[in-house]
Request: fold
Amino acid sequence: MRLNMRNAPGLALAGWLLAGCGILGGGEQTAPPLPPTAEGQNFVAPTETPLATAAPPTPQPTANTGDVLFVSKGQVWAVEPDGGNLRQMTSLPDGAAIHDLSVSPKGKYAGYTINGTLAEILELATGRRFTLDLANQARFDSLAWAPDDSAVYFHKLILDANSAPAKSQIWKVALPQAGAPERVLEVDLATGPMSLPIIGLDSGQVMIHEFTPGGDAGTWRAYDSGTDGSTPVADGFGLWDAHQGFQLLFSKAELTPGQFSVPIGLYQAEGGATPARISPLDDDLAAYTGARYGLLTDQIAVLRYTQDANGTITAGAALIQLGEGDVYQLTLLATEPGTRDVAVAWADTTHVIVQRLRGDVSEIWLLPTDGSAGKMIAAGEQPCVVGGR
Reply:
């Protein structure tokens, strides 16, 4: 369904926040750490994960531009957008829990954490795996990439002797790997906020999210490790995505204090300009979250939640196509009865990939952006696209 919209005075909506949306840095990001050790706070230099001995070596599975990566049964998998050529990319031991799966902007690498105690890189052209860092007395999450694939950032939460959070650190590893990780930022949690890397910027800075667990939505800043300085995003707003100098934002004033909630509005800013609302203000029963720029910055994929009079929540993906001035087009993408969409990523300029929950089962779907029927291509979670966004 398509609607041509113009901005008009709006209403606020109290809603609920799915764990995967990540406003407060929650969700299933990490698993409980292993028992602490005396050496837990020391990083280890990046090392290539040993491959199984074989003569001749068994070729490792690879992934190409357009392939969809996802997590299923404790492994990373790849599948073509039409659902063909399904293959297992990792061979992790039983009990491995993979979180934070993401693909670098140029499609050279995938990154993820394992059981919260190991951060790892998968080189997609060769299938080789490399350790970024590991530690027993720490937890890893929140990977972010430099726009040109030249570096990856990750968050390391240092635990004290009682396994309580003590320090929040951001580390950087140059790619291809050369030398040990470089610590970019460290915050003592006794006096400062948790700080997570979110997006690497063209300027060489990294966008970070500062927040106090259990507190409000926090603050997003463009951090420069060279000067130890930072520039906040527009005052009163939080960040969904940044791309080519544009930012997708939500208004923190639209969050309901004291409970999980979602913003109703979607805003856009270019550079330091005042944010302009780009979601329908007269659509007062909808909330927009998880927004992602497409390969073109006038295309935005977003998750749209609605709530009926009985409090039932419906969640589906939508496309916002920006036009001249304050005119834009909203297209609701195809849904399935009894399901809800919890994650969205761009496959190409005319398709998105969504993670769709059907009860307790998680499915990966390919949806055309014209609103026509989609196709289930795999069962799994945390989908991302090689060469997509």
